[in-house]
Design goal:
By secondary structure, this protein is of the alpha/beta class. It has 22 helices and 19 strands.
Length: 510
């Protein structure tokens, strides 16, 4: 062993950890000896420990079959890295092999006895480690959701990355009960209740970042299925400038959100980024001179300086009832998570007409359809015309991977389908990702928004009074310079940011 005075201190070594070397040692051996092997700058292996005198050097050299160097770090840092990297994407077989230990092998037999036994199993080290690794791996792969789906014979682990689900690995079904129970313990859910859906929350810390996790459990035919929504403040709370607006749309929307009264509606399906846009807009206008109150279901993130209310229908706190109370709380700006019924719509309109700026969302395919939806709810056209100031539809498109993008010449049929003339792309820079390790061979990495912003001016107000069709409203909007979702997407295609097929995928219903 090196002399103690020559042993250096290492604090930041995560990028030097190789899971293949780490997995040459058993988990217990790493924990008992409190060390972690990493690669040095010259390719040598460095054993990082908090106490060199506690190491079984002979055994370590026998396993590695090579010489080693010693370095020091804190026990907390070493244990954190063991937990984080011991089960890595390259070793899903190792996950199953290690979980096949004697204490876990007969899980199915133990499960039928008492809840206490299942609780004990869920708190055993192998189960805790695999649940942690499923979450850590999802974070490292930029997943927004983790799906644990139970089938007749297995437990499937799937991640939603950039809006698309990927099968990651499959575990034997005997691991399903303790894993589900472990997640329920983490989120303070009832581990004995398996017949009804449950919702919970928890949070973890990764690389000094706090990750909030929203958990949904539902009973299915073969057992409980769980979805974990990962909410990272760094990626969820974006500035308005980071959402992907064109310069024209940005200027128009930025002007709208600074009005002192009126309703601004955001439309689109679930997962189209509406909440992210709302939070960005509220953050943009938030200042000590105004009072902002939100009604959400659920509250995704805490926004500093903003009063956020979680609706709770079980105790009578609905969007409509909450709005009544908010109006007595002297707000300047109100955000209502969603307009679901006539009562909520009427309250939002009343709030806007009495001098408040109101933000809300609707589930419609495009901007013009939102007006028709309000009329269908039973709202009088004159109320809509006098309160609505803008409607914005949005979708999320995947961005071309910056690591593997190459110039692309799409076939004429595809150009024709999206409405691009061949002459239009002569000066454009069309690109397409060919697929690499960084983007999971998908060709896409990250997402951005495409937007359709309808400004309610005098002509459109007069049109609303006549109970028009959505096509009539859209035509009037196009005359005034509105760009449809597809038109905005085409602009991003021409800039090489995304592909025609991706724009067609998210705008097929508009």
């Amino acid at each position: 062993m090196e002399k103690m005075d020559k042993i250096r201190w290492m604090e930041n070594f995560e990028d030097k950890i190789d899971p293949e070397i780490l997995n040459m040692f058993s988990y217990n051996f790493l924990k008992v000896n409190c060390f972690i092997p990493v690669y040095g700058n010259n390719g040598e292996i460095i054993i990082i420990t908090n106490n060199p005198l506690n190491l079984d050097i002979g055994e370590i050299k026998t396993i590695l079959k090579r010489d080693i160097k010693i370095a020091l770090s804190s026990e907390e840092k070493i244990n954190e890295c063991i937990e984080k990297f011991y089960y890595h994407p390259t070793s899903s077989k190792k996950v199953i092999d290690d979980l096949s230990s004697e204490e876990i092998l007969h899980i199915e037999e133990d499960i039928d006895t008492e809840t206490a036994n299942l609780l004990d199993l869920a708190n055993k080290a192998p189960v805790i480690r695999i649940v942690n690794q499923i979450i850590y791996r999802a974070i490292s792969m930029r997943a927004s959701d983790i799906h644990l789906q139970v089938t007749e014979n297995s437990l499937k682990v799937r991640y939603r990355i950039d809006g698309v689900l990927h099968d990651i690995f499959v575990l034997p079904k005997k691991f399903h009960p303790p894993i589900i129970t472990r997640i329920k313990i983490m989120s303070n859910l009832d581990i004995a209740e398996k017949r009804i859906p449950q919702d919970g929350r928890t949070s973890i810390k990764v690389d000094s970042k706090k990750i909030d996790i929203r958990i949904s459990v539902i009973p299915t035919f073969f057992g409980e299925s769980i979805v974990l929504r990962l909410l990272d403040r760094a990626t969820f709370l974006l500035d308005l400038e980071e959402l992907g607006f064109s310069e024209d749309n940005y200027n128009k929307f930025n002007k709208l959100i600074h009005y002192d009264h009126g309703i601004i509606l955001l439309t689109g399906p679930t997962g189209s980024g509406k909440t992210t846009t709302l939070y960005a807009a509220l953050s943009k206008i938030n200042n000590p001179g105004i009072n902002i109150i939100t009604l959400e279901d659920p509250v995704e993130y805490n926004l500093e300086g903003i009063n956020q209310i979680q609706v709770n229908p079980k105790v009578g706190l609905t969007f409509a009832n909450g709005l009544r109370s908010i109006l007595r709380h002297d707000p300047n700006v109100i955000m209502v998570g969603e307009i679901r019924d006539k009562e909520t719509a009427e309250m939002a309109i009343q709030a806007s007409l009495t001098g408040h700026l109101v933000f809300s969302t609707l589930h419609t395919n495009d901007a013009s359809s939102a007006i028709i939806r309000l009329i269908d709810m039973g709202i009088e056209p004159y109320l809509i015309a006098s309160s609505l100031i803008g409607v914005m539809a949005q979708r999320l498109v995947r961005l071309n991977c910056p690591n593997c993008s190459i110039p692309d010449i799409p076939p004429k049929e595809l150009l024709s389908e999206i409405g691009i003339d061949e002459n239009d792309i002569l000066n454009s820079k069309l690109m397409k990702g060919k697929g690499c390790r960084q983007c999971l061979n998908e060709g896409y990495y990250g997402r951005t928004g495409i937007f359709e912003l309808l400004i309610i001016d005098e002509e459109i107000r007069n049109l609303i009074l006549k109970r028009p069709s959505s096509n009539d409203i859209k035509k009037e909007g196009l005359k005034k310079g509105m760009k449809t979702l597809r038109m905005d997407g085409i602009e991003k295609v021409k800039k090489g940011q995304t592909t025609i097929s991706e724009v067609l995928r998210v705008t097929q219903d508009v």
